[in-house]
Amino acid sequence: MISSRSLLATLITLALATATTAQKTIKLPKPGKAAEILFIGNSLTHFHDLPAFVRAMGAADQPARKLTTVMLAPGGYTLQRHLHAPKTPRPASVIKKNKADYVVLQEQSTRPLVEPELMEKFAGKFTELCKKAKSVPVWYMTFSRQNQPEYQDKISEQYERVHKQNGGLLAPVGRAWQQVRKDHKDVELHMQDRVHPAARGTYLSACVLYGTMFGGDVRSLPGKLVLKDANGKDKVLIDLPEDEARMLRDAAAAAIAKQFPKRKQAKPKKRGK
Question: Which of 40, 149, 182, 227 has the greatest number of CB atoms lying within 10 Å of its CB?
Fold first, then answer.
């Protein structure tokens, strides 16, 4: 018969092993290396086309990085609803087929607050799908609604808990938003509905996500993001005043540095004129 002391020792060992596995270091793609990213979320992801902002940052990086993105982001969807999606393409099938380098997972905005156990349950299911496809899950920590800043810590802590349970990378978007809203009360990151991101809010979110997935220093990115349209013409996604863009990039860089204290912090590169 196993003694209580032996059982306790075994449980502690298993717990430590699980934590170590979940927190293992993720090897980031080399500078300039192409990558594929699957975005799974809802309107917080598709407003202003967050994946396009991330692609444009890859194109503007030095050296440039070609990014391919796929977005599954119907309005109001939770991770649970994504798994039970009645229409194709279903995320489970896309993860299995695409075998993307990264799968960015964004939970519905209030679920971390009102149903955290369901967030954890379905985050675990998505983690298993990512493991089978050899994709790295990236937890897109969301931001609180404009009139509810007091909920940001609870939202952030829930994403931190999910990351600890499942591993992958945690993109501290909500922490960056929180700092900007605290230090620059005149800067509107939300749209008038107080829920969705304004274009500058999407820029801030993209900075955090890009830096989380590819390292380097987001302070070197431009405030004007451009992509080629279907006809090969330049399409401007955003063109921020440099002082505002710098402030947002600084907030993103600070949140990333705090989330990844062991990463070697690169010095900002001087962009060519």
Answer: 40
Angle (nearest 5°) at CA 149 between 144 and 153: 75
What does DSSP say about strands 67-72 and 35-40: parallel, antiparallel, or unpaired? parallel
| pTM greater than 0.85 | yes
Alpha-carbon span 151 to 40, nearest angstrom: 23
Q: Is there a contact between 188 and 203 (Cβ–Cβ < 8 Å)?
A: no
How far is Cα 143 from Cα 188, in angstroms, rounded to an integer?
Answer: 13
The span from the CA of 96 to the CA of 67, in Å, is: 19
Q: Is the domain 29-259 a CATH 3.40.50.2300 member?
A: no
Q: Give the integer Cα–Cα distance in Å for 70 and 36.
A: 8
Alpha carbon distance 222, 240 (integer Å): 9
Q: Alpha helices of the chain — where are they, by DSSP H? A: 4-22, 43-46, 50-60, 79-83, 91-98, 111-114, 116-133, 152-166, 173-183, 199-214, 242-259
Distance CA 71, CA 44 (A): 12
The residues that bridge with 40 in the sheet, in sequence order, are 72, 105
pLDDT tens-digit series, residues 66-120: 999 999 999 999 999 999 988 778 999 999 999 999 999 999 999 999 999 999 9
Q: What is the spatial distance between Cα 202 and Cα 180, in angstroms, rounded to a whole number?
A: 13
Q: How far apart (Å, rounded) are the C-alpha atoms in residues 119 and 101?
A: 23
